[in-house]
Design goal:
This protein has seven helices and eleven strands. The protein has about 220 residues and is an alpha/beta fold. Strand 5, helix 5 and strand 6 form a beta-alpha-beta unit. About 45% of the residues are buried.
């Protein structure tokens, strides 16, 4: 597949890109800072310069034209509520609308374990804006005609990958970024994940088996 990887210089994206390339996909990693291009190229992906915060509909269509899939792994990084809404909600939704217009039917959203409209984060909590933005973007995606999957990893760690996850946990725990990258790569090729929200921690189930529902 021709894949647009949005947020291509993120820690998880840099781990996912080489796995996607090794699987035979062509990865177009969207980045804002040209100084990150060399690091992206080292993963086997092709860097594409774009500021997703400022793209209009035409800009999004030009960015996603010819792509078979979109993987959203971008984020504003918190701290600035206005930018969080602009990136995590508005830009994400704009990418979904563009994906439908240009025919990039497969869409993977990297969200987080507790994302939901009823997230329960108080308005005076600094995390509230992010929780709202992610929930609204996820919900918009579920209402599209895209072949979508929402991935909900729990607290991220820098542990080595185990290749095993827990998809049945009722509460968030932890998961290595390297395992999240493996889940992204496996999800891209697993039709059983279409139309699903997949929340997961590190665990004992092989990733491929868990995503296919065969574990």
């Amino acid at each position: 597949m021709e894949i647009a990887l949005i947020g291509g210089h993120g820690k998880v994206a840099l781990l996912a890109a080489p796995l996607l390339v090794q699987a035979g996909h062509t990865v177009h990693a969207v980045i804002r800072n040209p100084e990150h291009a060399e690091e992206v190229e080292a993963t086997g992906a092709s860097p594409v310069l774009a500021d997703i915060e400022t793209l209009d509909a035409g800009g999004w269509d030009a960015l996603l034209e010819g792509r078979d899939a979109v993987i959203w792994s971008a984020g504003a990084g918190g701290g600035d509520p206005a930018r969080t809404i602009a990136v995590d909600q508005e830009a994400a939704i704009a990418s979904m609308e563009s994906a439908q217009r240009v025919g990039a039917r497969r869409y993977l959203m990297v969200s987080y374990f507790g994302a939901a409209l009823d997230h329960g984060v108080p308005e005076d909590n600094p995390f509230h804006t992010y929780a709202e933005a992610k929930a609204r973007a996820d919900e918009h995606l579920r209402g599209t005609a895209l072949d979508w999957t929402v991935l909900g990893p729990s607290g991220l760690t820098l542990e080595e990958p185990t290749g095993r996850i827990d998809l049945a946990a009722a509460e968030a725990g932890t998961v290595s970024r390297a395992n999240v990258a493996r889940v992204i790569a496996a999800t891209a090729e697993e039709p059983a994940t279409v139309g699903r929200t997949v929340r997961f921690n590190d665990g004992d189930t092989p990733i491929a088996e868990g995503l296919a529902g065969t574990a």
